[in-house]
Amino acid sequence: MTSASTGSRNLQNKAVLGVLLMIGGLALYVLSDAFIKQLMGTYSVPQTSFLRAVTRLVPLSIAVFMQGGVRKIFATQHPKRHIVRLSVNLAYTYSFMYAVSIASLTTIYTLSYTSSFFMILLSALILKENVSKEKWIAVGVGMIGVLIAMRPGAGVFELAAIVVLFGTFLGSLNKILMRRLASTEHSLAIAIYPNITMILVTFPFLLATWQPLSWHDWAFFGMVGVITATGQYAIAHALRFAQGSTLAPTDYTTFFWVLMLDYFWWNKSPDNFNITGAAIIVGSNFYILYRSRREQAEKAAQTAPA
């Protein structure tokens, strides 16, 4: 529904808060991916995608009524922008869900770190953000850290790799479109619409492939719904508080969550390459945050009255 009276939801310049929210949201997504990968041993990609969307809607719907109700949350000034973003998000979600079903989390996350390049490029092209040379260099250094830590082998560049790279580009574009929507739309609407779309599009494909669920698996899907709904909401707010080029390097932080899951879930310990790569990744993230805050301070000083 379109509301002419809806006020502008101005993008706020709070880089630290935006980065912290993005890191938290991404960590929740890594955890949900681990649950999803386990569930995909039994259920198809459409059924898993459908149930994940359904379980996400439960906590998000509760949040809608706690924050003003349907009319306030879903009023929109840009329905066409929502449609474009939802189409991109649908393709992105299916790409990654398929990749999770055929590849390891290490392979998926190693290649998904290329999103920093896509994110900064798209931020410059679509949002017209100025990206300094120092940020580009720091992102490149972070990528070197990823390669050292993860050491993708010759077998990485297969069908899964193509799917992940395609999905990574779409995921970066999705974040840019989310940030553009965040200037006028409620964060809950940005988080809820993709789940409704996934349910409507996926439902016709379930009739022939549906597998009955045990109570144990229903509990797993319920946890996935709560975890990813919280992650979606955190990421939507992060994109309101910080520029896309500032948030791009935070994708690297998922490396630590993957390591933790490998260690505690699959009993896999990091080696010296992992530790060296992690140090480089942390350094690049902190440097970009430092550059962002310095650039903001310089801009504020230039615009301040004499």
Question: For the CA atoms, what is the radius of gyration?
Answer: 20 Å
Q: How much of the residues is beta strand, in percent?
A: under 5%
CA-based shape: globular
What's the overall average pLDDT, rounded? 79
Helix content: over 70%
Number of DSSP strands? 0
The biggest sheet, with number of strands, parallel, antiparallel or mixed sense and barrel status, is: none
Query: What structural category characterises the helix and strand content?
Result: mainly alpha
Q: What would you note in describing this structure?
A:
- Helices cover 75% and strands 0% of the residues.
- It is mainly α.
- It has one domain.
- It starts with 14 loop residues before the first helix and ends with a helix.
Write a concise keyword list for the protein shown above.
single chain, 306 residues, mainly alpha, 75% helix, disordered N terminus
